[in-house]
C-alpha cells in the first residue's frame, strides 16, 4: 500500500488524540501512522482506523522514513526533535509555539494563507488555537474590505491546557457541588507560581505574564495575526480569559474595516460562503454559536454580527470553534492536506 | 425605637435575600423591616438581625407607614406597586429596569452620581448589575481624563437570572459530570422561546434580542451608562455573555480617554483611592480579580490595567464584582444610605 508515513508526536495528549482522529478523515493516502510520546507513555495503545497501534518513545530515529510529522508535545520537545525529523527528510507541522514567530517558518491557516507553505524549509507552524478561529472568521472580511483594527476578548476552554486541566476542573466542580474542599494545582498556567480554581470561575490569565502586563497568550494572538495576515500595521489587542468550558473557545471580536460598503448583511454573505466557516446568525430565532454546540465539529462558527452603534466602520461578532480541532489537530491535518494537494511532499516509499 | 420602616419587595428572590443581609449593615437606624413577596411565598420566614420576620403578600396597603421601599421582584411588580408605595409617602428604590430610563427618575450609583437623588419624585432606579460595576471602575478615570469610548465584553454570572437558574446550572453540571441527560428550561432568558444549557457552556444572549441584533442587556449597559455619566456623546458598545459562574460578573473593558497625561500608573493610582474600588493589579504576582474571589464582597475589583499597544489613549482592564451585592442589593441599600445622609427621608414616626 502506498501513501504517507505520518508521525504524531504527543500522541497521548489532548491534541495528539484528536490528531489521530482527524488523520482518519484526511484527504491523502496514509501507509502508516507512528504514534510517539514520552517514555512514560511508551507501550500504551491507541486506535487508528480501528487498528491498534503501540505508542513508542520519541527518539531521533523515530523519524526515519517519516514523510510528515505532527508535533504537539510542548515547545521543548519540538525544539529537540523537529530538527531531527527534518534532518531525516520529514516535513514537520508543529502545533507548539516553538517556531511560530521564526521568520523562516510559515505560520499557516489553510483557509487564509495556504500558499505560504510553499516556502517551508522543513517546518510549518500551526498557530495558537485562539488565533486560528479568529483568522478563519476575519479573512473573508479582510479580503473584501480590509481591516484596520481588531479588539478581541476570549472565552477559552480548559482543554487548551491539557487533559489534566480538564480532569482538575471536573474534580473541582464535583467537590464544589457537594460543598467539599477542592484543590487547584494546574491553571491558570502550569509554569506559574499560583494556581486558582477554574470551576464556576473565570481566570484572566492564560500562559505567563510578560513585562508589559499582557500574557503570552495575548501576544500570540497579536503577533500571529500580524504574521498570518502579512500586516504589521493592523491595530490589534487581545484579552484572554479561561472559563469553565471543556472544549470550544469563544471570542467577542470587534473590528473596524478599512473600505466603505460593508454592512451586517454583506458580512453575513461573505461568511456564509467562506471556507471553514458556518454562519449561525439569526438572533430573532436565537441562532448563534455556543461552545457546547461547536465541540466536536471542525468548522468555525460565527454569529451575533452587528454594527457598532457609534463607529461608522465598526462591527462586532461572536466566533466559536473547537479549540482541539480547528484550533489544533484539524488545522494541522489540513496543512498536511495542503502539502499533499500542492505536491510538496512525495511519499518516501 | 426610632428609625426607618423599610420594605423589601421580592424578599425571597436572589437579590431580595441579599437586600435583607445588606440592610443589616446599613448606616442608618431601622425601626422595622417588612418583607414582601408573592402570595405563594407569604407565611415563609426570614431572619433580619437574628429576628424572624414573616413574609407577607405584597398589596398596596403593605406600604402604609413605609419610609423606604426596595423593589426587586420584576418590572411588572414595580410598575404595579411602586406608584402605590409613593402614594403612601415611601421613597422607592427600584432594582428592576421598569423606571431606569424614565427622565423623571434618577438612575444612581452613589460613588458616581449621588447628588442625582436630590431630584427624585418618589422613585430612584438602581442600574443594571453589569452597568454598576463598570461605572464604579470608570468614574474616577472619567473625572480625571474624560472618556471618549467604551467597548465592553461581559462574563456574567448565573445568579443574575435568579435562584432557579443557579439551581438549573448546578443540576446540569451534576448530570454532565455523571454523563447523564440534562435539561435546560430557563436560560438564556426565561421569556424567550428556546433554552440552552449554561453548565460548561457560554451563552451570548442575556435578556431578549432587539430588532438591531443587540440584546436588551447590551442596550441597558449602553443607555444606562450615558444617563449615569450624563453624556450622550460617549461611544459605547457592549457584548453580554453568560458564563457558568454562580455569582460575580466579570468584564473585559476597553476605554479611550479624552485628555493627555494618562498612564497605567496614573489610572492605578486613581483606582487605588477611589470609593468602592479595590485595585487588584499586580500581574508579576498573579494578582487580579476573579468572580470566585469577589463573590460575597461589596467592592468592585479592578485589575489587568494595561495600555493598548496601538491606540495612544486606549486602555484595557478587567472589572469584577458580586452582581447580587454591588450589582443589586448593596447599591440599593447605599442609595438608601444616601437618602439618609442627605436628609431626604424623614422617618414617619
UniProtKB/TrEMBL annotation, chains A, B:
This protein's UniProt keywords: Amino-acid biosynthesis, Diaminopimelate biosynthesis, Lysine biosynthesis, Methionine biosynthesis, NADP, Oxidoreductase, Threonine biosynthesis
CDD domains, per the entry: ASADH_C_bac_euk_like, VcASADH2_like_N
PROSITE patterns for this protein: ASD (PS01103)
Active site: 129, 249
Catalytic activity: L-aspartate 4-semialdehyde + phosphate + NADP(+) = 4-phospho-L-aspartate + NADPH + H(+)
Task performed by this protein: Catalyzes the NADPH-dependent formation of L-aspartate-semialdehyde (L-ASA) by the reductive dephosphorylation of L-aspartyl-4-phosphate.
Family under the similarity heading: Belongs to the aspartate-semialdehyde dehydrogenase family.
Quaternary structure and partners: Homodimer.
Protein known as: Aspartate-semialdehyde dehydrogenase
